[in-house]
Design a protein that fits this description.
about 200 residues; alpha+beta; three-stranded antiparallel beta sheet; about 40% strand
């Protein structure tokens, strides 16, 4: 679909904000209740979470294994195996710096060459503004000075091959969207190398 087609559809489908009420204003998000006018002239309510954004990193060691962290996720009441990730702080606008910080804090490593941005995506655009920046760090090394985890953050680190990560998806140890996205990208790059001799 071209930009011109998008512009045409926007005129037909755009919702217009009438009012915006903040229901909750927390440390990592705020909950807003918007009233909007629909394309047909009717009114509707939209519950929207405003979020500062986040980063996630597919980081590989010299053995070609990726770093994963296991932590408790209270919203789903279970453990989750994920790639290193974290939120952008309020007023923080450089996701690369945030990604480097999260690698340092969560696994004690840092990139030795610039990281590659795989993609950006909205994690749940039906109700949230959270924009996630996904990075690839193919060359990392232990940091000289590891930063501590957040006071309320507890996790363990493990290193998995692509096959092990795919197995963890199959047995549902990995159920996290950003991590699943990263693993599929990782597998695609492996296929590209096998078929074309290069990544990407």
């Amino acid at each position: 679909m071209t930009d011109n087609h998008f512009a045409v559809h926007e005129k037909r489908l755009k919702e217009t904000q009438i009012s915006d009420q903040t229901l909750y204003d927390g440390s990592i998000l705020s909950l807003h209740l918007e009233e909007v006018r629909l394309p047909n002239g009717a009114k509707a309510k939209r519950e929207i979470i405003h979020h500062h954004g986040a980063v996630a990193i597919l980081a590989l060691n010299e053995a070609g294994q990726a770093a994963f962290v296991t932590q408790w996720r209270e919203p789903i009441k279970r453990l989750s195996l994920e790639i290193p990730a974290g939120k952008l702080d309020l007023g923080e606008y450089d996701p690369v710096t945030a990604a480097q910080r999260e690698l340092n804090e969560e696994i004690g490593y840092g990139p030795t060459v610039p990281m590659k941005e795989i993609t950006q995506f909205y994690s749940s655009l039906g109700y949230s503004t959270e924009l996630l920046h996904l990075y690839y760090a193919p060359h990392i090394q232990p940091v000289a000075h590891k930063q501590p985890l957040d006071d309320d953050e507890f996790l363990t680190v493990e290193w998995l091959s692509l096959a092990d990560a795919q197995a963890a998806m199959a047995d549902r140890r990995i159920v996290d969207a950003k991590t699943i996205t990263a693993i599929y990208w990782w597998a695609l790059q492996r296929t590209n190398v096998q078929e074309n001799g290069h990544v990407g």
